[in-house]
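Project outcomes to date are best conveyed with an example. Our students and postdoctoral researchers have been running inverse folding experiments weekly, and each run begins with a structure described purely in tokens. The record below, which covers 479 residues, was selected by the lab manager from last quarter's runs and is presented without edits.
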């Protein structure tokens, strides 16, 4: 294992003129990235002194500057703490208070702590020579992607080190070309992007997700690895067929989807388009206590599964902490033989099972089949209890989003005097589709008790850049 700093130096020494990061029409080579981040690290140190073991908040948009800032932070032995550059000031202040960073890069903090603004340029007189070799005790700290409660920090237990052969994760082979189209404050885009950079990937970064621009970028740069949330996959798939045909996507070797449940019909459509061996799914969570993976051809034989466990352990438990039978739905609990993270601002949801402590839940419901394949049904907190029957919002949303005029849907439970809860669908439509048309369509897709009782048609986005919807907040606003 090498420190991130030494791994980046070795890449620059081996192929100094090879592109490291491209964004728009600007590309920096490995040698340029090495010298620029050495100088930037010294500039940060001049602002705040020794930051080893501290956090540095990075509040920058998708850009070359984002990766340069993180690389400089790693070279100082600190931990990048990632927040959205578009986060409201009050929420950013709460997260900065939790992280207590030595420095904030990007948006100015309200508390007056040291700050390097967006576009910060170090003094050209600073040395660009190699820095002393140090290792951060944690290579990343992210904000919770949860939909309820106040934000928390998830601090990775992995130090700032690199295996030059790459981590044992789908698509993370050395020397690939990778498109980064998701928001970099989100774990999936950052994990694959940063890990790829450390093993020699050429990262092609989009400032924001745009479905056609993704295809154009794959064509232009001969992209081999792409990581998407299902929302992104749907937006690409629904582009007109003649438009999709303009772009050559044959270079793609790995299309990895993660971060949210993927409807079966959507995954099958991508398998039909690109071939089953190119489509991968992973399931873990930022906490990374355990994780699964499955390739498309294996998924066809275990339709709907997120795969077998690749690291850690998984059990499906009932409300009393007992294992449920194969095929039955319960809460997914995970355990690991090593520490994988720590929370700041929250405690893990943990219990002892058969006398063994450390079993943790992220709040997801699922089942294991007789062959050990995991199926994720929905989040426990999102479950709708309608007249005693369980309705899983993700299933209803998937049915609604099969309609060609539905841009996206979020389904929540709202209080009902008779049934306890009723199913309410918030739908962003792309044409003058009517509620009656949606009702008729969904009735062909789902059992009647799962069909929404009420609809709300809107014209604004329902999910953030990472494809996440805050169902609890949406439901509370409609209580």
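After processing, the design step wrote out the following sequence:
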């Amino acid at each position: 294992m090498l420190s991130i700093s030494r791994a980046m130096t070795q890449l620059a020494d081996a192929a100094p003129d090879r592109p490291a990061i491209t964004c728009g029409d600007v590309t920096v080579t490995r040698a340029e990235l090495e010298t620029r981040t050495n100088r930037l690290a010294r500039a940060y140190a001049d602002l705040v002194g020794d930051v080893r073991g501290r956090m540095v908040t990075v509040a920058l948009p998708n850009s070359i500057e984002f990766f340069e800032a993180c690389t400089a932070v790693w070279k100082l032995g600190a931990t990048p703490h990632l927040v959205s550059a578009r986060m409201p000031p009050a929420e950013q202040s709460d997260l900065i208070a939790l992280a207590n960073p030595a420095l904030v890069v990007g948006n100015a903090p309200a508390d007056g702590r040291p700050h390097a603004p967006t576009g910060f340029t170090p003094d050209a007189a600073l040395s660009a020579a190699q820095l002393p070799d140090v290792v951060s005790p944690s290579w990343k700290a992210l904000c919770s992607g949860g939909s309820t409660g106040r934000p928390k920090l998830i601090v990775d237990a992995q130090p700032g080190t690199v295996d030059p052969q790459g981590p044992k994760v789908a698509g993370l082979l050395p020397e690939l070309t990778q498109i980064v189209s998701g928001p970099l404050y989100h774990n999936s885009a950052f994990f694959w992007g940063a890990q790829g950079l450390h093993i020699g990937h050429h990262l092609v970064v989009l400032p924001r997700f745009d479905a056609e621009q993704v295809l154009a970028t794959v064509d232009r740069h001969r992209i081999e690895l792409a990581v998407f949330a299902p929302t992104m996959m749907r937006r690409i798939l629904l582009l007109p067929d003649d438009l999709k045909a303009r772009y050559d996507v044959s270079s793609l070797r790995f299309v990895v989807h993660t971060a949210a449940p993927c409807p079966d019909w959507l995954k099958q459509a991508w398998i039909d388009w690109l071939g089953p061996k190119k489509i991968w799914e992973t399931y873990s969570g930022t906490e990374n206590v355990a994780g699964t993976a499955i390739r498309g051809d294996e998924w066809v034989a275990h339709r709907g599964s997120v795969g077998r466990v690749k690291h850690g352990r998984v059990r499906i438990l009932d409300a009393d902490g007992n294992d449920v039978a194969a095929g039955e739905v319960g809460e997914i609990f995970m355990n690991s033989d090593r520490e994988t993270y720590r929370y700041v601002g929250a405690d893990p949801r943990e219990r002892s099972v058969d006398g063994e402590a450390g079993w943790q839940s992220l709040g997801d419901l699922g089942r294991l089949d007789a062959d050990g394949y995991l199926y994720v049904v929905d989040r426990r907190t999102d479950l709708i209890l309608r007249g005693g029957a369980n309705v899983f919002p993700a299933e209803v949303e998937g049915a609604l989003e099969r309609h060609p005029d539905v841009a996206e849907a979020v389904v929540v439970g709202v209080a009902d005097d008779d049934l306890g809860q009723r199913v309410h669908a918030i739908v962003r439509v792309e044409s003058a589709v009517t509620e009656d048309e949606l009702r008729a369509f969904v009735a062909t897709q789902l059992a009647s008790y799962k069909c929404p009782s009420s609809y709300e048609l809107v014209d604004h986005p329902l999910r953030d850049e990472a494809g996440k919807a805050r169902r609890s907040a949406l439901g509370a606003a409609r209580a």
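Residues 30-48 form the longest helix (19 residues). The chain has a mean pLDDT of 92. The training component of this project remains on track.
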